[in-house]
Amino acid sequence: MTNNFWGLKAGFILASGSPQRKALLEQVRLYPDKIVSPDIDESTLPNELPAQYVKRIAVLKAQAVFQENKGVCVVAADTVLAVGRRIIRKAETEEEALQHLQLLSGRKHRVITGLCVISPQGKVITRVSQSIVTMKHLSKEDIALILKSGEYKNVAGYKIEGLISAFIKRINGSYDGIVGLPVYETAQILRGVIGA
Q: Which residue in 117, 98, 88 sits closest to 30, CA to CA?
């Protein structure tokens, strides 16, 4: 695939193994030349706020890939859920997913995605997308259904495009940002750094 639709002068690397991010780009006809899953330390820093965290991690991902591919545009992102200052990341076990669902049940929370694009010249451009999501009160049966689906695996909190959407009362913000990549901001930045 090429990015001739957008008239881009160069290609780009997606620094993420997320199939959701790849799909979001492809739905607007932006096709990464290569996909690389960078291996970085994603630990939080002391007193780090959720928005600071996703921005820092997105930059680290992009820089790790750019170091190995100098002169090529790199796109990276990181997404977390936040309840107040608390960061909700990928559940490693069903028990952890259960705790997350119990915490989110019946309340508003934020889904925050940090975006980083590094231009072929090495310029670092960042954005942070924040959306507010209101979840219905989840009964034991609701939680059992969600856990049975297995959709909590390998995603930050949940897959908004999956079964969980039946339990979301309201979204205020960017749906794409909740999925994992704010498409509007990504397309505009790419057009700015590698566009005709």
A: 117
Regarding beta strands 73-83 and 12-14, do their DSSP bridges make them parallel or antiparallel, or are they unpaired?
Answer: parallel
Question: Quick check: is 176 catalytic?
Answer: no
Looking at 41, 78, 142, 176, which residue is catalytic?
Answer: 78
CA distances from 110 to 21, 97, 99, 137, 146 (A): 19, 17, 17, 16, 19
Quote the radius of gyration of the chain (alpha carbons, Å). 17
CA distance 183 to 24: 7
Q: Which residues of 111-144 are buried (b: 16+ CB within 10 A; e: fewer)?
A: bbbbbbbbbbeeeebbbbbbbebebeebeeebbe
Q: Please say whether the beta carbons of 88 and 82 come within 8 A.
A: yes
Taking only the tens of pLDDT, the chain with its 196 residues reads: 567 688 888 899 999 999 999 999 999 999 999 999 999 999 999 999 999 999 999 999 999 999 999 999 999 999 999 999 999 888 889 999 999 999 999 999 999 999 999 999 999 999 999 999 999 999 999 999 999 999 888 887 888 999 999 999 999 999 999 999 999 999 999 999 998 5
